[in-house]
Amino acid sequence: MHSLQFTAESSSNGMIERDFTVGDVPGVLWSPASGAERAPLVLMGHGGGAHKKHPAMTGRAHSLVTGCGFHVAVIDAPGHGDRPRTAYDEQEIAELRRAQAAGEPEGPIVVRYNARLAELAVPEYRATLDALQELPEIGAEGPVGYLGIAMGTAIGVPLVAVEPRITAAVLGLMWPDALFEKARRITVPIEFDLQWDDERIPREAGLALFDAFASKEKTLHANAGEHVAFPRFEVDSAVRFFARHLGRAVTSPA
Amino acid sequence: MHSLQFTAESSSNGMIERDFTVGDVPGVLWSPASGAERAPLVLMGHGGGAHKKHPAMTGRAHSLVTGCGFHVAVIDAPGHGDRPRTAYDEQEIAELRRAQAAGEPEGPIVVRYNARLAELAVPEYRATLDALQELPEIGAEGPVGYLGIAMGTAIGVPLVAVEPRITAAVLGLMWPDALFEKARRITVPIEFDLQWDDERIPREAGLALFDAFASKEKTLHANAGEHVAFPRFEVDSAVRFFARHLGRAVTSPA
Predict the structure, then answer these.
(1) Residues B237, A237: C-beta atoms closer than 8 Å
(2) What's the rounded Cα separation, in Å, for the pair B21 and B27?
(3) pLDDT in tens for each of the 254 residues of chain A?
(4) Taking burial as the number of CB atoms within 10 A of a residue's CB, which of A67, A73, A207, B140 is the most buried?
(5) For residues A169, A171, A177 and A181, what is the CA-based torsion angle, rounded to 10 degrees?
(6) What stretch of H or E contains A252?
(7) InterPro entries per the record (chains A, B) (predicted)?
């Protein structure tokens, strides 16, 4: 088991930001600037082609940290951010760009590439969680959430299916093809986002993935608009979802 | 045009509650206890067999008034609350009870009875809005919201379709049969609730009504569970929806 090594620390905008590594996986942990009070952890997964400090990640972290006092951590997915690309990564990315340029469906390529990345990333997330829970401000007893959209869902569904420490998850915007079987094993509360007019992921496919979760408590949020129009206010909703399920009050109305 | 007559006033739980009549239609207006500051109005519609001060109404009003400082008004639907039942009301209610007791589908009866009530209620809501806008704390310039679930949607869809003063609405949990055509005329932001496992309203029917709204901004919230399991946290979501669209801050995190 690898322990967590902090490699950099800074503070801004109400958050302490600490870069870390667990083995050769780089990540970042955001915590309330007010100090090291013990609080629940929310793990996040970034989108395809993005990285741990993409603005979508820092924005969501800020809402979770300053809105509820959570700790929030994200790691670079294999082949993303500060991690090297393998020949396989390069090959799939080239294939994806070729399909996009040719106007061909990107779904089959994204599904198979992200499924492969998830096989690698799930044990990395679990090792990261092991290491983060050794920190006194997180601890091993607290509930853990997971928030990941698009590729963050391609990794998140298999992760939540096998990781009992994760007790609530916000997911969405992903083809269901590689995820049905694992979604059927998930019983924790789920908030699931889709775009009603998604030009990439068919509406029926998104609805079918939501339907597959075995969770007794699950909520679908479907917003009008195309794939990239995913609205900012769903982040506020995710904060409130985690506040309900991880046992925190929303301290800062947004 | 009938003017508004206040008939009773009380105060509790952070709200001033004023009973009123507009002509022979009784209603209630809840406002912040802190006073008569001008603020947007949210009209509400109650459910079938309920009335203007049903706990669902007082609970939603409390969240809207204390969470955002809105004024909130609801009137008794025809044949409901303090209003007399006609022979037609008695006949349809008896038919509904008979169908329920026999285990027959209640949808066709609810759809036709609520459609008739909506024909009567829409002009009553518009006259009530005329009268409420004469109050200095509401005024004629401010945006107006509408919140109504189930029968409140059977009335709300035709109301929002013809009433340009209503600029945002939360609707849901209703058969679409009598509402499609009017929903297609609605362009204001909509939050639409349905129960994913509704044993009364088929899932596809609920999804089809959401799809029918012409609104560029619309959000579907589908929650796991049967018809009556409609979760309380959707009221908090409605408060935040109206805060976004009627231009108020959420002052009290819930």
Answers:
(1) yes
(2) 6
(3) 688 999 999 999 899 999 999 999 999 999 999 876 899 999 999 999 999 999 999 999 999 999 999 999 999 999 999 999 999 999 999 999 999 999 999 999 999 999 999 999 999 999 999 999 999 999 999 899 999 999 999 999 999 999 999 999 999 999 999 999 999 999 999 999 999 999 999 999 999 999 999 999 999 999 999 999 999 999 999 999 999 999 877 776 54
(4) A73
(5) 10
(6) none
(7) AB_hydrolase_fold
Paired tokens of B25: 């239609």
Give the closest residue to B51 by CA, choosing from B19, B92, B90: B19
Cβ contact A119:A17 at 8 Å: no
Asked if the Cβ–Cβ distance from B233 to A224 is below 8 Å, we say no
Of B215, B222, B249, the CB nearest to A219: B222
Take residue B199 and report the two structure tokens written for it.
Answer: 């044993």
Min Cα separation B76/chain A (Å): 31
Residues in chain A: 254
Q: Is A174 helix (H, G, I), strand (E, B) or coil?
A: coil
CATH of B4-246, one of 3.90.1640.10, 2.50.20.10, 3.40.50.300, 3.40.50.1820: 3.40.50.1820
Cβ proximity of A136 and A168 under 8 Å: no
From B219, B236, B244, residue closest to A221, measured CB to CB:
B219
Minimum distance, in Å, between the CA of residue A213 and any CA atom of chain B: 10
Of A196, A237, A251, the CB nearest to B220: A196
Q: How far B37 CA lies from chain A's nearest CA (Å)?
A: 21
Domain boundaries, chain B: 4-246
Q: What is the ipTM of this complex?
A: 0.92
Q: Give bridge partners of residue A12 from the DSSP assignment.
A: A15
